[in-house]
Amino acid sequence: MSIDIADAEEMPDAVTDTDGDRAGIRSVADGGIVAQLRLDHPDLFLRPTLKRTADVTVEPDYWTAVDADRTLVFLTVYGTSFDEFETALGTDPTVTDPVLVDRYPDRRVYRVALADRTVTFTAATADVGGRLLELSSSRDGWLIQLRFPDRDRLVAFNDYCRNRDISVTVDHLRVSDDEDDGVVALTEKQQELLTVAHEEGYFDVPRGISQDELADRLDVSKSAVSQRLRRAIGELCGSTLS
User: Fold this and answer.
1) What is the pLDDT of residues 106-160, one digit of tens each?
2) Mean pLDDT in residue range 21-39
3) Quick one: which of 219, 223, 220 has its CA closest to 84?
4) Nearest to 131, CA basis, from 81, 182, 92, 84
5) In which element (H, E) is residue 44 found?
6) Residue 22 falls within a domain, yes or no?
7) 37 and 151 inside one domain
8) Which of 74, 141, 170, 232 is the most exposed place for a label (fewest CB within 10 A)?
9) Are residues 145 and 222 in the same domain?
10) 2 belongs to a structural domain
11) pTM score
12) Is residue 142 located within the same domain as residue 82?
Protein backbone atom coordinates (compact mmCIF):
# COMPACT_ATOMS: atom_id res chain seq x y z
CA MET A 1 0.00 0.00 0.00
CA SER A 2 1.37 3.39 -0.94
CA ILE A 3 0.64 6.74 0.70
CA ASP A 4 0.54 9.89 -1.42
CA ILE A 5 2.35 12.83 0.12
CA ALA A 6 1.37 16.33 -0.98
CA ASP A 7 4.10 18.33 -2.69
CA ALA A 8 5.88 20.35 0.01
CA GLU A 9 5.77 23.45 -2.20
CA GLU A 10 1.96 23.31 -2.10
CA MET A 11 1.64 22.85 1.65
CA PRO A 12 0.49 26.02 3.49
CA ASP A 13 2.59 27.43 6.32
CA ALA A 14 5.31 24.79 5.98
CA VAL A 15 8.14 25.12 8.47
CA THR A 16 11.72 25.70 7.35
CA ASP A 17 14.34 23.90 9.43
CA THR A 18 17.81 25.18 10.31
CA ASP A 19 19.33 23.67 7.13
CA GLY A 20 16.84 25.41 4.88
CA ASP A 21 14.91 22.22 4.03
CA ARG A 22 11.15 22.18 3.93
CA ALA A 23 9.51 20.22 6.73
CA GLY A 24 5.95 18.97 6.26
CA ILE A 25 4.43 20.44 9.40
CA ARG A 26 2.51 23.63 9.95
CA SER A 27 3.18 25.70 13.05
CA VAL A 28 0.65 27.60 15.16
CA ALA A 29 2.91 27.61 18.19
CA ASP A 30 3.70 31.33 18.26
CA GLY A 31 1.23 33.88 19.56
CA GLY A 32 -2.43 33.16 20.04
CA ILE A 33 -5.10 33.81 22.66
CA VAL A 34 -5.62 32.12 26.04
CA ALA A 35 -9.24 32.25 27.21
CA GLN A 36 -10.75 31.23 30.52
CA LEU A 37 -14.45 30.54 30.02
CA ARG A 38 -17.44 29.20 31.93
CA LEU A 39 -19.81 27.01 29.92
CA ASP A 40 -23.35 26.06 30.87
CA HIS A 41 -26.27 24.23 29.25
CA PRO A 42 -28.97 21.97 30.77
CA ASP A 43 -27.70 18.99 28.74
CA LEU A 44 -23.99 19.75 29.09
CA PHE A 45 -21.91 16.78 30.22
CA LEU A 46 -22.64 16.10 33.94
CA ARG A 47 -24.48 19.41 34.35
CA PRO A 48 -27.44 17.85 36.25
CA THR A 49 -25.04 16.20 38.71
CA LEU A 50 -22.98 19.36 39.19
CA LYS A 51 -26.16 21.34 39.85
CA ARG A 52 -27.20 18.96 42.63
CA THR A 53 -23.74 18.49 44.21
CA ALA A 54 -22.09 21.78 45.13
CA ASP A 55 -19.37 20.56 47.47
CA VAL A 56 -17.29 18.54 45.02
CA THR A 57 -14.87 19.39 42.24
CA VAL A 58 -14.88 17.17 39.16
CA GLU A 59 -11.89 16.88 36.84
CA PRO A 60 -12.24 14.69 33.73
CA ASP A 61 -9.07 12.63 33.28
CA TYR A 62 -9.53 11.42 29.71
CA TRP A 63 -12.02 10.30 27.07
CA THR A 64 -11.81 7.10 25.06
CA ALA A 65 -14.06 5.93 22.22
CA VAL A 66 -14.48 2.18 22.60
CA ASP A 67 -16.61 1.94 19.43
CA ALA A 68 -18.54 4.20 17.08
CA ASP A 69 -21.45 4.61 19.50
CA ARG A 70 -19.83 4.50 22.92
CA THR A 71 -17.45 6.99 24.57
CA LEU A 72 -16.15 6.45 28.09
CA VAL A 73 -14.96 9.25 30.36
CA PHE A 74 -12.85 8.79 33.50
CA LEU A 75 -13.41 11.40 36.24
CA THR A 76 -11.55 12.31 39.41
CA VAL A 77 -13.90 13.78 42.00
CA TYR A 78 -12.58 15.73 45.00
CA GLY A 79 -14.53 16.70 48.07
CA THR A 80 -16.55 15.12 50.86
CA SER A 81 -20.09 14.69 49.50
CA PHE A 82 -19.44 11.47 47.61
CA ASP A 83 -22.74 9.82 48.57
CA GLU A 84 -24.65 12.86 47.34
CA PHE A 85 -22.56 12.91 44.16
CA GLU A 86 -23.18 9.23 43.44
CA THR A 87 -26.92 9.61 43.99
CA ALA A 88 -27.03 12.47 41.49
CA LEU A 89 -24.76 10.62 39.05
CA GLY A 90 -27.06 7.59 39.08
CA THR A 91 -29.95 9.65 37.68
CA ASP A 92 -27.97 12.02 35.43
CA PRO A 93 -29.44 11.81 31.88
CA THR A 94 -26.16 12.99 30.28
CA VAL A 95 -24.30 9.78 31.27
CA THR A 96 -24.96 6.06 31.51
CA ASP A 97 -23.40 3.10 33.32
CA PRO A 98 -21.54 5.02 36.10
CA VAL A 99 -18.88 2.92 37.85
CA LEU A 100 -16.74 3.67 40.91
CA VAL A 101 -13.20 2.75 39.80
CA ASP A 102 -10.93 3.85 42.67
CA ARG A 103 -11.39 5.19 46.18
CA TYR A 104 -8.95 7.43 48.12
CA PRO A 105 -9.32 9.46 51.35
CA ASP A 106 -9.72 12.78 49.53
CA ARG A 107 -10.99 11.73 46.08
CA ARG A 108 -12.71 9.06 44.03
CA VAL A 109 -12.37 8.01 40.41
CA TYR A 110 -15.43 7.15 38.31
CA ARG A 111 -16.05 5.90 34.78
CA VAL A 112 -19.14 6.96 32.85
CA ALA A 113 -20.40 6.55 29.30
CA LEU A 114 -21.71 9.55 27.38
CA ALA A 115 -25.45 9.48 26.69
CA ASP A 116 -26.74 10.20 23.20
CA ARG A 117 -28.32 13.50 24.25
CA THR A 118 -25.20 14.86 25.94
CA VAL A 119 -23.87 18.24 24.82
CA THR A 120 -20.05 18.34 24.74
CA PHE A 121 -17.38 20.82 23.69
CA THR A 122 -14.02 18.99 23.68
CA ALA A 123 -14.28 17.75 20.08
CA ALA A 124 -15.37 21.21 18.93
CA THR A 125 -12.33 22.73 20.65
CA ALA A 126 -9.99 20.52 18.64
CA ASP A 127 -12.02 20.94 15.46
CA VAL A 128 -11.57 24.72 15.41
CA GLY A 129 -7.85 24.44 16.25
CA GLY A 130 -7.99 25.12 20.00
CA ARG A 131 -6.18 23.29 22.79
CA LEU A 132 -7.68 22.45 26.17
CA LEU A 133 -5.34 23.62 28.93
CA GLU A 134 -7.52 23.16 32.02
CA LEU A 135 -10.95 21.72 32.75
CA SER A 136 -12.80 21.47 36.05
CA SER A 137 -16.31 21.79 37.37
CA SER A 138 -17.76 24.91 38.95
CA ARG A 139 -21.04 25.72 40.65
CA ASP A 140 -22.46 27.04 37.40
CA GLY A 141 -21.18 24.51 34.86
CA TRP A 142 -17.65 23.93 33.57
CA LEU A 143 -14.60 26.15 33.99
CA ILE A 144 -12.23 25.75 31.04
CA GLN A 145 -9.01 27.35 29.92
CA LEU A 146 -8.29 27.15 26.18
CA ARG A 147 -5.58 28.34 23.84
CA PHE A 148 -6.48 29.37 20.30
CA PRO A 149 -3.91 30.18 17.59
CA ASP A 150 -5.75 33.37 16.66
CA ARG A 151 -8.92 35.38 17.20
CA ASP A 152 -10.77 33.68 14.34
CA ARG A 153 -10.49 30.27 16.04
CA LEU A 154 -11.85 31.73 19.28
CA VAL A 155 -14.76 33.26 17.35
CA ALA A 156 -15.41 29.88 15.67
CA PHE A 157 -15.60 28.18 19.08
CA ASN A 158 -17.96 30.87 20.34
CA ASP A 159 -20.14 30.37 17.25
CA TYR A 160 -20.25 26.62 17.93
CA CYS A 161 -21.48 27.30 21.48
CA ARG A 162 -24.01 29.93 20.41
CA ASN A 163 -25.49 27.64 17.74
CA ARG A 164 -26.10 25.01 20.42
CA ASP A 165 -27.38 27.44 23.07
CA ILE A 166 -24.34 26.84 25.28
CA SER A 167 -23.91 29.80 27.61
CA VAL A 168 -20.38 31.24 27.48
CA THR A 169 -19.10 33.57 30.21
CA VAL A 170 -15.62 35.03 29.81
CA ASP A 171 -13.53 35.14 32.99
CA HIS A 172 -10.53 36.60 31.23
CA LEU A 173 -8.63 36.70 27.94
CA ARG A 174 -4.95 37.27 27.38
CA VAL A 175 -2.74 37.42 24.34
CA SER A 176 -0.04 34.77 24.19
CA ASP A 177 3.26 35.85 22.67
CA ASP A 178 6.68 34.51 21.79
CA GLU A 179 7.94 35.11 25.34
CA ASP A 180 5.47 32.69 26.97
CA ASP A 181 7.62 29.57 26.45
CA GLY A 182 4.46 27.52 26.80
CA VAL A 183 3.82 28.61 30.41
CA VAL A 184 0.19 29.40 31.17
CA ALA A 185 -0.36 32.27 33.57
CA LEU A 186 -2.29 31.78 36.78
CA THR A 187 -5.97 32.54 36.54
CA GLU A 188 -7.38 35.52 38.41
CA LYS A 189 -9.05 33.26 40.97
CA GLN A 190 -5.82 31.32 41.51
CA GLN A 191 -3.97 34.60 42.06
CA GLU A 192 -6.66 35.79 44.47
CA LEU A 193 -6.49 32.54 46.46
CA LEU A 194 -2.67 32.54 46.67
CA THR A 195 -2.67 36.19 47.71
CA VAL A 196 -5.18 35.63 50.53
CA ALA A 197 -3.48 32.39 51.59
CA HIS A 198 -0.08 34.08 51.79
CA GLU A 199 -1.33 37.20 53.58
CA GLU A 200 -3.26 35.17 56.16
CA GLY A 201 -0.38 32.78 56.89
CA TYR A 202 -1.59 29.58 55.21
CA PHE A 203 2.00 28.71 54.26
CA ASP A 204 3.38 29.54 57.72
CA VAL A 205 4.31 26.96 60.36
CA PRO A 206 1.97 26.69 62.16
CA ARG A 207 -0.66 27.76 59.68
CA GLY A 208 -2.45 31.02 60.30
CA ILE A 209 -5.55 29.98 58.38
CA SER A 210 -7.09 26.65 57.35
CA GLN A 211 -8.55 25.61 54.01
CA ASP A 212 -12.03 25.73 55.58
CA GLU A 213 -11.42 29.35 56.62
CA LEU A 214 -10.05 30.18 53.17
CA ALA A 215 -13.18 28.71 51.64
CA ASP A 216 -15.38 30.83 53.89
CA ARG A 217 -13.31 33.93 53.15
CA LEU A 218 -13.60 33.46 49.37
CA ASP A 219 -17.16 32.07 49.46
CA VAL A 220 -16.26 28.84 47.65
CA SER A 221 -16.31 25.18 48.64
CA LYS A 222 -13.40 23.56 50.48
CA SER A 223 -12.87 21.20 47.55
CA ALA A 224 -12.61 24.21 45.21
CA VAL A 225 -9.96 25.75 47.47
CA SER A 226 -8.04 22.48 47.59
CA GLN A 227 -8.01 22.00 43.83
CA ARG A 228 -7.33 25.66 43.05
CA LEU A 229 -4.34 25.60 45.39
CA ARG A 230 -3.05 22.39 43.84
CA ARG A 231 -3.33 23.69 40.29
CA ALA A 232 -1.84 27.09 41.13
CA ILE A 233 1.14 25.62 42.98
CA GLY A 234 1.59 23.11 40.15
CA GLU A 235 1.71 25.91 37.59
CA LEU A 236 4.25 27.83 39.66
CA CYS A 237 6.46 24.78 40.15
CA GLY A 238 6.23 23.90 36.47
CA SER A 239 7.27 27.37 35.32
CA THR A 240 9.99 27.70 37.96
CA LEU A 241 11.59 24.25 37.88
CA SER A 242 11.31 23.38 34.18
Assistant:
1) 889 999 999 998 999 999 999 999 999 888 888 788 989 899 999 899 999 999 9
2) 76
3) 223
4) 182
5) none
6) no
7) yes
8) 170
9) no
10) no
11) 0.67
12) yes
